[in-house]
Specification:
Elements (H helix, E strand, L loop, with lengths): L6 E4 L4 E4 L1 H4 L26 H8 L13 H10 L10 H8 L2 H13 L8 H9 L6 H12 L3 H22 L3 H9 L5 H15 L3 H11 L12 H14 L4 H10 L6 H12 L6 H9 L1 H4 L8 H4 L1 H7 L4 H12 L2 H6 L1 H12 L4 H17 L2 H15 L4 H7 L2 H10 L4 H10 L4 H13 L2 H4 L3 H14 L5 H13 L4 H13 L4 H14 L6 H15 L4 H22 L2 H12 L7 H31 L3 H10 L12 H17 L25
Antiparallel strand pairs: 1-2
């Protein structure tokens, strides 16, 4: 992942910059000071960010750098890095020396993405590092990205080469991205090289505010066991003095205190935390930091100042910053210790955020309700459910969709399984809104089947009503619903009769087309041979209607799925019949179907050939004619000893037998269920 995909979270005095490389390993590096204008014209400093700077100065012309690379170089890129002849200068090294800014950036990006199982040319490496002398931010970012992607072996070899350049560049612009580079190098630095970093910190603490801020940020990511001449407590005393003269440094000072809490004495921390928490003018940013480190501040170690912490939740719930209110919901939802120790303020905050006038804040609290519910007392659980039921009826669809996620519905069912009727009523009221229905069906399928088994009829009724209104938009969620039911062996005959009566016999050709899509998917979940033959025979009936949309759907989707399924079952008989059905389209005048005919027929013939060869070997294993006949039946044939040579006729006879059974309404094969207490057949008449 490149630096161009980061998540900046702005805070009044600082921002949390999370880069993908570091995000995978730690959560300590997340605060960088941002400049933000306030109404009172107070200014806040921030660490310079190369990512932000490149984004702000990006233009259309410099975004498409790869188009500026000479054609020959693109093809040679993967081989030029590992040229056998080290004495011969590669094209890529030449580009690094004499190419344009865009070409150099492209070469470095290529190097960063290459596998590292071979050594780069020494000449290439040296020319790459020379680029650190550039003043171009994009090349500098590309070099940082290259370093962060190096494996441990390369890091060991390159640390000596890059440590001085990294320190020099950091002193030049104090870019936040270099904090990641320092962290990447920590495991590979010697004591003398660590001394260079501490010298950098000490000199920066005696400079201007920007340098002081960068120095404290660098201190916050250092490993505790690497402090040498000056200890952690000494640095802490120094930065406390600095922050007392400037509130700009206070958030980083708090971060330092939490980061090194195990290395600082209880008395030192208690005095510092008490002084910050009792300050009536404590900023939202500092308050958020205490919530972020709630597992420390609410531990028994600091029980004496716990009551100073509790009011912060109410303070943040009424903050004027949307981002702060968002973070409050996330921090409370991810912290069991806050939910369990601050019940009253959490209860008030949940209600306050649920009524927030900003949509992102309401979405944030909906997302975090299940976690809050999980850790809450029974009283708070009652409150959370009331808030959830309130948010389901939110006026904005974004909030409603979030409220219909599986985690939220599971929470409701855990509280009271009968409450699911509230969801059904809501979906019925909004049946025309396909996104709402789709979200509900997807969530329904991801919840424990046993838990929802009593409500399958209601769910099928909702899906029927909705798909009539939106047959294309809802087909995937409906397929998932039927697949879930079949996988869980829920009354297979009931499900199949429902499919036939509602979809196959519908007057809407869209629903008949959907029958093909559903059948060709769920047959992989139906174990009984007679049942999947029953489904397929209905599909073959539908394609005889000569409706182009249905026939195209059959050729586009069903044919390949049928081939895959019959091949998996080694069922030569069904493959032969499928071949006969596809042959119907040999002389079609539809260009879309015609385009599919040749490749699909080729696949069918290849599978038939493979299974036929298997058939011969199976027949040879039979000791007598009766045993050979049984072996052939296992391959999908339905024939007597007198018809062994007529494969297709035997299969057709089997299919015709199934159709006869259906026409005579033999109830032992498929029954048509009815709703309990009524004469209504499930799915027989779609609602208009």
């Amino acid at each position: 992942m490149s630096f161009h995909s980061i998540i900046p979270i702005q805070i009044h005095h600082f921002s949390m910059i999370i880069i993908a490389h570091f995000h995978k390993k730690s959560s300590n590096f997340h605060k960088i000071i941002l400049k933000k204008k306030k109404k009172k014209k107070k200014k806040s400093l921030f660490m310079f960010s190369l990512v932000r700077y490149v984004k702000e100065t990006a233009t259309t012309s410099n975004n498409s750098t790869i188009d500026k690379i000479p054609k020959g170089f693109k093809q040679q890129a993967l081989t030029d890095f590992t040229s056998v002849d080290n004495s011969q200068e590669s094209n890529l090294t030449h580009l690094l020396k004499y190419g344009t800014v865009s070409q150099k950036e492209w070469v470095i990006q290529k190097a960063a993405d290459l596998p590292q199982d071979q050594l780069f040319e020494p000449d290439f490496i040296s020319n790459l590092l020379i680029q650190y002398n550039t003043t171009d931010s994009k090349i500098e970012l590309a070099l940082i990205d290259f370093i962060l992607k190096l494996n441990d072996d390369y890091m060991n070899k390159m640390t000596e080469l890059i440590i001085h350049q990294v320190i020099e560049r950091f002193e030049n612009n104090y870019a936040s991205e270099y904090l990641l580079v320092f962290q990447k190098m920590f495991n590979h630095l010697t004591d003398d090289q660590f001394n260079l970093i501490f010298n950098l910190i000490d000199s920066s603490l005696n400079k201007m505010m920007k340098e002081k801020l960068a120095a404290i940020s660098l201190l916050c990511v250092l490993p505790p066991n690497k402090f040498q001449k000056k200890g952690i407590s000494e640095y802490f005393e120094e930065i406390i003095k600095l922050s007392s003269n400037s509130s700009i440094l206070l958030p980083e000072t708090i971060t330092f205190a939490f980061h090194f809490s195990n290395s600082l004495s209880d008395d030192t921390l208690l005095d510092f935390f008490r002084s910050v928490l009792t300050d009536s003018s404590i900023s939202d940013e500092c308050a958020l930091l205490f919530l972020q480190y709630s597992d420390i501040i609410l531990s028994n170690r600091f029980v004496n100042i716990r009551f100073y912490f509790i009011p912060l939740i109410s303070k943040l719930a009424t903050s004027s910053s949307i981002r702060v209110r968002n973070c409050l919901a996330e921090y409370v939802g991810s912290s069991p210790i806050i939910v369990q120790n601050c019940e009253i303020p959490v209860k008030n905050a949940v209600l306050f955020l649920a009524r927030d006038f900003q949509i992102p804040v309401r979405i944030s609290i909906v997302k975090n309700l299940p976690n809050i519910y999980k850790f809450a007392s029974q009283t708070l659980k009652n409150h959370v459910i009331d808030v959830y039921l309130f948010l389901i009826e939110d006026t904005k669809p974004e909030v409603q969709l979030e409220a219909l996620n599986s985690d939220q519905i599971k929470m409701l069912l855990e509280y009271d399984i009968q409450k699911i009727t509230v969801i059904f009523k809501f979906i019925t009221k909004h049946i025309k809104r396909w996104r709402i229905v789709a979200q509900f069906l997807n969530s329904f399928c991801s919840i424990s089947f046993e838990l929802l088994k009593p409500y399958i009829d209601e769910c099928l009724s909702i899906s029927n009503d909705a798909i009539v209104l939106n047959p294309n938009a809802l087909i995937n969620p409906v397929i998932q619903l039927y697949s879930t039911l079949v996988k869980n062996h829920y009354n297979i005959e009931y499900i199949l009769s429902h499919l036939v009566n509602f979809y196959k016999k519908s007057k809407s050709f869209w629903l008949r087309r959907n029958f093909i899509l559903i059948s060709s998917t769920i047959l992989f979940d139906v174990p009984e041979e007679m049942i999947y033959k029953y489904l397929i025979s209905y599909v073959y009936e539908i394609i005889n209607e000569e409706i182009k949309t249905i026939q195209y759907c059959f050729m586009k989707v069903a044919v390949l799925k049928f081939v895959e399924y019959f091949n998996m079952k080694s069922n030569l008989g069904m493959l032969q019949e499928l071949k006969e059905k596809v042959l119907i389209f040999e002389k079609t005048d539809d260009p879309y179907i015609k385009e599919l005919y040749d490749p699909h027929m080729g696949i069918i013939m290849e599978k038939i050939k493979n299974i036929t060869e298997t058939t011969k070997s199976v027949l040879e294993k039979g000791k007598n004619s009766h045993e050979k006949e049984n072996n052939m039946k296992k391959l999908g044939f339905k024939m007597s000893s007198q018809t062994k040579s007529t494969v297709i006729k035997g299969v057709s006879k089997s299919i015709n037998h199934i159709r006869t059974m259906r026409k005579n309404q033999i109830k032992t094969m498929i029954t048509i269920p009815k709703v309990a207490g009524t004469n209504k057949v499930i799915g027989k008449t779609p609602k208009k």
